[in-house]
Amino acid sequence: MKKILVLVAFAISLGCVAQTNITEVWVSPSGTDVSNVTGSKDTPFATLEQALLYVRQLRQQKSPEELGEVHIVLRGGVYKLGHTLCLEAADAGTLLSPTIIEAAQGESPVLSGGVDVGGWQDADDVTGLPEVAQGHVWQAPTPVVDGKPVEFRQMWVNGVKMRRASTFDDMSMPQIISVDKNAKTLAVPRPLMDLSKAKHLELNIPQDWVVNVMRVTGIKHKDDFSSVLSFESKEADIEFKRPYPILRADYGSHSNHRFFFSNAIELLNRPQEWYNDKDGSTLYYWPRNGETYDGVEAVVPRLETLVNISGSLDNLVSDIHFRGITFEHTTWMRPSTDGHVELQAGQYLFDAWSENTATANNVAWVGRPAAGVSVQYARNVSFEGCHFRHMGSTALDFVSGTRNMTVNGCVFSDIAGSGVSGGFFGDETFEVHQAYNPEDMRVVCDSIYVTNNYMVQVANEDWGCVGVGIGYASNVNILHNEIVGAPYSAISVGWGWISTKNIMHDNHINYNHINGFAVHLRDCGAIYTLSPQPNSSIIGNCIEKPGDPEHCPLMWDMKTAQFDIYTDEGTDYYKVTDNWCLGNFSMNKNGSHNTWTNNGMNVSDAIREKAGLEEAYKEIVHKVAVATYAPVDSIGDRVNANRDQIDYISQNDGFKLGDAVAVDLNNDNLCDIVYSGGEGNQTRVGGVRINTGNYGFVATQAITNANMCSLAAGDLNGDGHIDVVQAGFDFWDAYNAVLMNDGSGRLIAEALSDGASIAPACGIADINNDALPDYFFVGNGSRNAFYMQKASRDGYDKKTKLTLPGGFNEPNIMYADFDNSQSVDICLLSDKSGGVYTRIHYNEGTGVFTEKSVGFKEKGTRGGMAYADVNGDGWLDVAIGGELVGEIWSTTAAEGGKTVSLYLNKGDGTFTLAQEFSEYMQDNVSHPIRFCDWNNDGHSDLILAGWNMSQGNIAQVDVYLNDGAGKFTKSNVDLPGVSESSLELADFTGEGRNDILISGNANGTLGFHGYNVDRRLAVLCKNKTERVNTSPLPPTELSAEVDGNSVVLNWNSGSDAETPVKSLSYNYYLRNLDTGQYLMFPNSDIATGVRRVTSMGNAWLNLGWTLNCLPRGNYAWSVQSVDAGYAGSAFAAEQTFTITDELTEEEEEVEASVDKKLLEAGWTLVETFSGVDCADNYFAFLDAETGMTVIAQNAVGDKNWGNTYAMYYANGVDPNTNISGVFGLDAFDVTSDMKVIITPLSDPNRHFRTEGWNHTLWQTYSDVHKEGDSYGVDGNRNIAMVYPELFRDRGWALKNKTTNAYLGPWVSGAFEDGAEFAADKRDANVTYFDIYTIPRVQYLQQLNDWSSATYDNPLEITQLITNPSFGRYDESRHPIGWIVEGEGMVEQQGYLPGCEYYAYMNNWQNSGKLSNRSVSQTVKNLPKGKYRLTVYSLCPAEGAFLFANDQNVDLKHEGNADVSLDFVMPEDGDAVIGVRLQNYQSNNFKFDNIRLYYVGPCDDEEVSVDNVVRSPKTDNAIYDLQGRKQQDKRRGINIVDGTKVLVR
Q1: Three-state SS for 1147?
Q2: CB contact set of 1289 (below 8 Å; sequence gap of 6+)
Q3: Cβ distance 630 to 163 under 8 Å?
Q4: Which among 158, 626, 834, 1094 could bridge 986 via Cys, Cβ 3.0 to 4.6 Å?
Q5: Are the CB atoms for 982 and 960 separated by under 8 Å?
Q6: Which of 528-532, 726-730, 1140-1144, 1439-1443 has the highest mean pLDDT?
Q7: Cβ contacts of residue 510 below 8 Å, gap of 6+?
Q8: What distance in Å separates the CA atoms of residue 730 and residue 1477, rounded to the nearest whole number?
Q9: Residue 1011: strand, helix, or coil
Q10: Is 182 helix (H, G, I), strand (E, B) or coil?
Q11: For residues 862 and 884, is the Cβ–Cβ distance under 8 A?
Q12: Contacts of 21 (CB under 8 A, 6+ apart)
């Protein structure tokens, strides 16, 4: 921190220099630069350049003392720079007379490199412009400066960056198919638009930690599905031979890099996109909704550098200070002229190839991008309170030869490249993998201070850039900065990838707040370092929100390659401490001098709160008032209001084998869209589109783009916001996730690790009638997982509910009350081993299901299902599509294939076939069949999608209208045909018509947007029906019948102008009045009744609903009607009821036993293990539901509970029998008194022993056995072993604050230092426990009767010793838990003769005498009393001692034997115990099995030294305090001739 003090001293010296004069020079946009102007406040200059020239003249005329501080004061306004403003040595100030370029008080001057765009008009028919854009695009002449059209890569409209025309959308990008490095070509999925005539087309490849820009020279179509791209040689020569990052492009691989095209008129297909036709000197722009010609201020950049401060080694620029200046509008044209192939951190490659050198296996030469403000060969330059924004590359760069550079209190926003860059990275003559030690050290950048700056939307074009990037530099201090949403690393310091010392040293990255990193790229760290940097530090930073690949699926393994702190190759001499973060670290090929302490989530709040902007600078975040990058507006409402069919993702994107659901995520009573789908290694998409009204949609996030995806929506946690459950395949792996709504409409995904083999069908419903929504998955094989929500709402119990025949393959499900029994039934359709399967599993009302064949012709995959009451009889009818047994791909409708069957409900749980529809082959999808009232006549119509095989494999979507009696006729509604599809209906405008979302494969569909080849669609088709649906009226006569903890909710039917009364469904809510919490939220707006999902109500067609197992309390409820168009009525007047059911005596006893008994017994409730010594305490895990208490001690002393198994002991069997000091887990079930012991699996011979165990007896305890547990019987010892799966269901969850891993239910390292109970992390798979702690001694005193202990009846308390039999050891073979002093005392595997314990301490050498050595540990908190310590040893000579505190006994004896030491604790305290060698007279000594016993209390007289004769050596016999003769005298109190003697 020495350099920080230098900064302070420098600032103080600047502020404390006695100033007799201040010279002011004023500049104003309204000023003039004529020769007679003097730059006074009243006659200001017009340009900063003229003011600097004037100051040069002043410095030639006057001394620094005469001038004093020179203030160039800029009035507010925009100063358009015609060329780069250069400050040279002639502009230098001095310490006494610095040049300060500052904003006038309260004003905001801006230095801009931009040019205004004018002359907008509607574009005529433009060659290449997509049809969707024709008539919506403006055009203007490309600005001309000095007779030449301006070249640029950015455009801002009203202060917001618009998007260059591209296929980039919401991070849903296709993947490269293959690479041909010899031909220097890439194979990609065939573009959907014709790009064969595109000029200046670019391919952008996010490639691990860089983004490369390749200029496309040719596109050759291989087939209907793929094209081959060729490129300009300058970048192709580098990209196809560079070694790192490796271009991933293996055919069929899920790890292939993604890409997008940009810069072609053919790509301009969305609002807010632009394209500059260089050849035609015309700029095209699709305006945003509401923009007009005269209301648009469009700016394009003409300069790459605004200000260049540059001296020379012998003539420096010095003492220049900028205060309160805004720098904006730059570009960087090298990617357009030379392409851009990046090495790292924005540095582009001149050349690179594989070559084994002394320092690396590759070589590279780099250049640095242009910067908006560039500084080199300068001293004492500062930027204070400035704003760098709208930059086309790096904002501020300290290039070389700089010292004392300060950037303080500045804002960096909307920066295409890095925010601040500094130091040497290389050039065309310097290969980067070598140490930088220049002969002339003046070229080194030294003393850079980057403090209290706010960086947001940095690196928003070149994602491989960073917030602060430092190469070879020294004395760099990056302190108290706030960096938000870095696409790659936020702070990068170091260069070279070397282990040799170089000019870097004293670099400090401290107290920064990084709020988001790795947003787009991988293999990065929020803080990243390279190479040795002596005396450097990373201290006190707060690092949050690493990028989530579920929200930005650009990279193939982001989760395993994004680190909070990443000390990469060669990093050395760094102190890394007190950094708050999730605990993900990488230390790749580091040196040996780094120190890491106290990093992770265990760092104190005080340190965490200190990170980021200091108090005086926190207001600077408000300088960024609006978004600096326009959001993706893929559907502009101005355009779509007049279109019948809308690409709701974009014209470029669609999907098959997926799902889309219409849900109101942000509670504005407009349905939004959540979608996900795709196939194999082809383009897959997933995201959210928020409805802005009038068919306008804005993309707000991506979600996991799962293949064969299904989605279900509903409010899971009763917070009034719709959540989503997702199932599908993430490439080859099954994917199951819950996406919780954060209250703003954003979905936060949590993948279910235990559901990896479930997929692909999912649902949300109250399965067991407890008024709490559950969610569930049904997958391949016979797998199904139901997550039953707990009454406490703090988690879910995972259950297997359905008994399935096995062999399922990609099943489809639907769930509803098919028999009007007031419970949720489940219908399944699937292929299965040896046939097909279509059955209903009827719910008995408690979540117990019974399978039933109900009259369906059983079908398999390539189908779908839907339900509705089609004939108004008050029973749900069903439509089912799919393949029959024996049906193959080519089976036609005439042959009975590819039909959709309509079944009418007979009211007895069975169905009868009523009508069939053909031909619709529906390949492995979620919702190819939907019921909805399309024409608003009150009857449920039928919409079908699929292939028509008989007509040449033509995809189709058809609407069949219902006559009211359940008879359907095909309509003439014209919809785009799709196969492998999903359908969703919703009223997207609130006007009373249900539009339809169609996704799928449009093969064979002619005329849709002009495509006649395979085309993935995702379209919203408007319903043009003239008739408008009206909402129904609510139910009446609500009543509640309470019986114990159950209630039956009843109501009379509602009514509707269109839908028959019996076809109305009903939707109820239930709220706990005591807590205000909704148990069942109705997925509707409570105030208006507007539905937030498109479905029937949660009570279906019933006029009542039964709820069970409600907790005691007061409740409010109501219900609404829902018609056939899924419109909801208002809710009926709210009603109340009370549950007063009391606990039984047995329940009261269990409840009381949970935590009350422990607290009364002296236990302490804890939420963190920080500061709690795992080795000296027991921990109790309490399950409030079952009353199960698990008492846990760190059994092996190394704070690591990995590799364990459990053993059950029969009731009444003492678990301490033959425990031999190894005390693992002791679990007590208060209802059965069953006990559980867990011991280390790594020491299999240390088993507990009991009698009477065999496989049959195991079944006696099957009530605690969970499905998936493994168990077996040790034939030698008759021990039943249950592996950790048992405890996974019991639900332990711990969080390690060092690694930030949520540990549990059973994870190695759970009790390492910094472990914390995850009280704030509720995993739906886990039943959580409260955690209590108690000192070990205190617990053992409760467990046993210490008062009865005597020498003849000692109480073993070896449990207080860590690793007493030396079965656990470290890499040095030193016993864990013990302190080893001296050489040669090591653990040895095997048995010591005569000892049953495997492993012992071995001291042996070939000859001579063993050196002095010892092994010891401290037993804490022993109560005052008498103790016995024993050890089993082989000790043939004198000089080996067993000791406790200052008492010991010589261990010499014949053979192998136990030797004991009796010692006294005169008061409560700690005992240091162990074995030591001192002047040992042999070359061999072995020992094992140290045991500790309590032998009774002692009184003060017994241990008083005053009552002891201090005796010399005596030949008399030695007796203990009980009068028993001892073999040898020992240190302590002895009896000699009847007298107490203290032997030392």
Answers
A1: helix
A2: 798, 1266, 1305, 1327
A3: yes
A4: 1094
A5: no
A6: 528-532
A7: 477, 478, 479, 480, 537, 538, 539, 540, 541
A8: 62
A9: strand
A10: coil
A11: no
A12: 65, 66, 67, 68, 69
User: What does the alpha-carbon distance between residue 699 and residue 1459 come to, in Å, rounded to a whole number?
Assistant: 77
pLDDT of residue 1160: 54
List, for residues 1374-1395, the tens digit of each pLDDT value: 777 788 888 777 666 666 666 6
Contact 654, 646 (CB under 8 A): no
**Residue 800, both tokens:** 């297997």
Cα 383 to Cα 394: distance, rounded to the nearest angstrom: 15
Alpha helices in 218-374 (DSSP H): 233-239, 334-338
Sign of torsion over alpha carbons 753, 754, 759, 765? negative
Q: Is the pLDDT of residue 231 over 80?
A: yes
Q: How far is CA 1023 from CA 309, 573, 866, 898, 1000, in A?
A: 63, 68, 20, 27, 19
Q: What is the pLDDT of residues 1255-1264, one digit of tens each?
A: 222 222 222 2
The one-character DSSP state at 1144 is P
Ordered DSSP codes for 643-659: -SEEESSBTTB--SS-E
End-to-end CA distance of the chain: 53
Phi-psi group of 1248: left, alpha or beta (phi > 0 → left; psi -120 to 50 → alpha; rest → beta): beta
How many angstroms separate the CA atoms of 512 and 542, rounded? 6
Give the SS3 label for residue 951: helix
Average pLDDT of span 414-442: 94
Q: Are strands 342-344 and 347-354 parallel, antiparallel or unpaired?
A: antiparallel
10 Å CB burial of residue 1197 (0-12, 13-18, 19+) is: buried
Of 1173, 1176, 1070, nearest to 1131 (Cα)? Answer: 1070
Whole-number Å distance between alpha carbons of 546 and 738: 19
Please list the residues that pair with 997 across neighbouring strands: 984, 1020
The residue behind tokens 């297909």 is: 269
Six token digits for residue 1019: 């379209």
1276 class by beta-carbon count within 10 Å (0-12 exposed, 13-18 middle, 19+ buried): exposed
* Statement: residue 414 has pLDDT above 50: yes
Rounded Cα distance between 232 and 1129, Å, is 63
Residues in the chain: 1544
CA distance 1207 to 973: 68
Q: Are 1038 and 1053 in contact (CB under 8 A)?
A: no
Contacts of 1259 (CB under 8 A, 6+ apart): none
Tokens 């406040």 correspond to what residue? Answer: 41
The model's pTM: 0.61
Strands, E, within 578-679: which ranges? 585-587, 595-597, 645-647, 659-663, 672-678
Distance CA 958, CA 1343 (A): 74
Count other C-beta atoms under 10 Å from residue 1249's C-beta.
17
Give pLDDT tens digits for 1267-1313.
222 233 332 322 233 323 333 333 333 333 333 333 333 333 333 33
Across 1048-1057, average pLDDT: 96
Q: 1494 and 1357 in contact (C-beta within 8 Å)?
A: yes
Q: What pLDDT band is residue 950 in, cutting at 50, 70 and 90?
A: low
SS3 content of the chain, % helix, strand, coil (to 5): 10, 40, 50
Nearest to 1102 by CA among 1007, 1185, 1035: 1035
Burial (CB < 10 A; 0-12, 13-18, 19+), residue 732, is exposed
The predicted structure's pLDDT at residue 1521: 43
In sign, the C-alpha dihedral spanning 846, 848, 849, 850 is negative
Give the pairing of strands 411-415 and 454-458.
Answer: parallel
The predicted pLDDT at position 1195 comes to: 29
